[in-house]
Design goal:
Radius of gyration: 19 Å
Number of helices: 10
Bound molecules: NADP nicotinamide-adenine-dinucleotide phosphate
Largest sheet: 7 strands, parallel
Order of helices and strands: EHEEHEHHEHEEHEEEHEEHEEHH
Helix content: 25-40%
CATH class of the largest domain: Alpha Beta
Shape: globular
Strand order of the largest sheet: 3-2-1-4-5-6-11
Structural class: alpha/beta
CATH architecture of the largest domain: 3-Layer(aba) Sandwich
Number of domains: 2
């Protein structure tokens, strides 16, 4: 079966594409900028171009990974965030509807407001705390409105790809590599780390079951940014040299408001006995040990 992947130059696609190939699928990767030789150019906000790609490839599935993932840029440029994440996803879903293609849409814990003390499950009502979350939720709603054969899979704090990771874990690693001996890290924001390698494996296993629906998919357990930084230092073998100081998020203002909690529970996967995700500590340890001497 042919599979068209959007956002093919991104951090998650770097694990999802090889996993699809290992499972015997023929993969065609597209992204807005041709950052890799093996991918083709496609801006998902251009509906004509989306249709043309679909007509060329005739995919059985679209794995829609493309998004504006910069939370602060989304807050400052809401039109851009809505165009890519809401209208771009609507374009993909309309093309799927037109040609009878099944869709996998990757969404986010950012659809939740963050005031629930326990981790969010699929039966909790979404209520985003920032523009990025609203735009991704609008993407989910377009998929649900237009299609019946879809997977919406919400990821937590994504980790993967080492130096291509624009997010938290590599930012901490970078500070350590620069020789910092004191790291000040936010201790009042909580989430569920999601390793792209684990996610890709569980995602393809889920899709192969054909059990369409809405799923949360994060590594087991949750943590504050501070907890994760402490573990990074420990797994890098630097506990004696590097101190992690907990700070309040008010001391570290950002353009977009962040939810207090983006913790998620893979409840739906658990109920169908398909939660294959290891604990975040286990995966972080393996990830650091594999990459730290690069
Ligand atoms: N990263 C996280 O922590 C996280 C957490 C939960 C869910 N997710 C979701 O997981 C999915 C994959 O995220 P990721 O971490 O792999 O993000 P990423 O590394 O930023 O990859 C997204 C890709 O989409 C591309 N893109 C942006 N605008 C586009 C457009 N108009 N047309 C086509 N492609 C476009 C980006 O290109 P440029 O970089 O050139 O703009 C980038 O290559 C996204 O749907 C995201 O919302 C991510």
């Amino acid at each position: 079966m042919n599979i068209l992947v959007t956002g093919a130059a991104g951090m998650l696609a770097a694990e999802v594409i090889p996993e699809l190939k290992r499972n015997g699928f023929k993969v065609f990767g597209y992204d807005v900028n041709q950052r890799l030789p093996e991918i083709q150019t496609l801006d998902i906000t251009n509906f004509e171009h989306v249709l043309k790609a679909v007509e060329d490839i005739k995919p059985g599935y679209i794995f829609h990974l493309a998004a504006e993932t910069d939370v602060d840029r989304s807050e400052k440029e809401p039109d851009h965030a809505f165009k890519v994440n809401a209208v771009g996803t609507e374009n993909i879903a309309l093309a799927c509807q037109e040609y009878g293609i099944k869709l996998v849409y990757i969404s986010t814990a950012g659809v939740f407001f963050g005031d629930k003390p326990e981790p969010y499950n699929e039966f909790d009502a979404p209520r985003p705390a920032n523009i990025y979350g609203v735009s991704k939720l609008q993407g989910e709603m377009a998929v649900q409105r237009l299609l019946s054969k879809y997977f919406i899979v919400r990821a937590g704090w994504m980790v993967g790809g080492w130096e291509i990771d624009k997010k938290f874990v590599y930012k901490i690693v970078q500070q350590i590599k620069e020789g910092k001996t004191e790291l000040r890290v936010v201790a009042d924001k909580f989430g569920s780390p999601t390793f792209t390698k684990d996610f890709a494996g569980n995602l393809v296993a889920l899709v192969k079951t054909g059990r369409y629906g809405l799923y949360h998919m994060t590594n087991r357990g949750s943590a504050s940014r501070y907890d994760i930084a402490v573990k990074i230092v420990e797994y890098m073998g630097l506990k004696a040299k590097v101190t992690v100081v907990p700070i309040n998020s008010a001391q570290f203002p950002l353009p977009a408001p962040r939810a207090r909690s983006e913790m998620m529970h893979n409840y739906h996967l658990e109920l169908i006995d398909l939660d294959l995700m290891p604990s975040w500590e286990e995966s972080l340890e393996a990830y650091i040990k594999l990459n730290k001497d690069r």
